[in-house]
Design brief:
The chain is α+β, with helices and mostly antiparallel strands. Helix content is about 15%, strand content about 35%.
């Protein structure tokens, strides 16, 4: 909340899944709901809570999804991207 005479902070966008992010949009990872048996692979590739990501493109049929994370491109299955929550506007 802003003090008297100051402009209020802009509203923070609501979290959404990585799969619903618009092409070219950037976001910050807020939650990873991938099952533990698959989560380790994502963590090893640098996809952690707090990491900035950018959605690069969807494959022609919508699966897989290509994102940019930590300076390199990473391809995820759509069902995995639906379990990764982000806050747009990074």
């Amino acid at each position: 909340m802003a003090a008297a005479g100051q402009t209020p902070d802009p509203p923070t966008p609501d979290p959404q899944t990585l799969a619903t992010l618009a092409v070219g949009a950037s976001a910050i990872v807020t939650e990873i709901r991938v099952p533990p048996e698959h989560r380790g692979r994502l963590l090893e590739m640098g996809l952690l809570v707090g990491t900035p990501v950018q959605l690069i493109r969807f494959a022609p049929l919508g699966d897989p999804i290509e994102i940019k994370v930590r300076g390199y491109n990473l391809t995820l299955r759509k069902h995995e991207a639906e379990l990764i929550w982000v806050r747009p506007g990074a």
